[in-house]
Write a structure and sequence with these properties.
The protein is mainly beta. Helix content is about 0%, strand content about 50%. It is built from no helices and ten strands. The chain has a six-stranded mixed sheet, with no helix packed on it. Strands 1-3-8-7 form a four-stranded antiparallel sheet, with no helix packed on it. A hairpin with a 4-residue loop joins strand 7 and strand 8. It starts with a strand and ends with a strand.
């Protein structure tokens, strides 16, 4: 079983940047594709970016060109660099495998507002 802890969220103005981190403990991180998901109240959780075990990224159209996903196997950590943030990026962001297979962490809140 893998435990996931997300961090790095906050309040940022439109056009700003944030870098999210996801620290994974336990075995399994290295062999699965990993992703960043986000959820707003009343809506389903959506996958916005994923990265294969070989390091190949995939992005939702809504974030393509603005977000960059990466992973550090030595640190068992996944990252999401978010640039040119928009108000519609406001959500709680979570990490998990793709497809999800572990318990969800508490997430990290990202609020984009002027």
């Amino acid at each position: 079983q893998v435990q996931l802890v997300e961090s790095g969220g906050g309040l940022v103005q439109p056009g700003g940047s944030l870098r999210l981190s996801c620290a994974a403990s336990g075995s399994g991180f290295r062999i699965y594709a990993m992703g960043w998901y986000r959820q707003v109240p009343g809506k389903q959780r959506e996958l916005v970016a994923s990265i294969s075990s070989a390091g190949s990224p995939t992005y939702a159209d809504s974030v393509k060109g603005r977000f960059t996903i990466s992973r550090d196997y030595a640190k068992n950590t996944e990252y999401l660099q978010m640039n040119d943030l928009k108000p519609e990026d406001t959500a709680v962001y979570y990490c998990n495998a793709v497809p999800s297979k572990w318990g969800w962490g508490q997430g990290t809140q990202v609020t984009v507002s002027s």
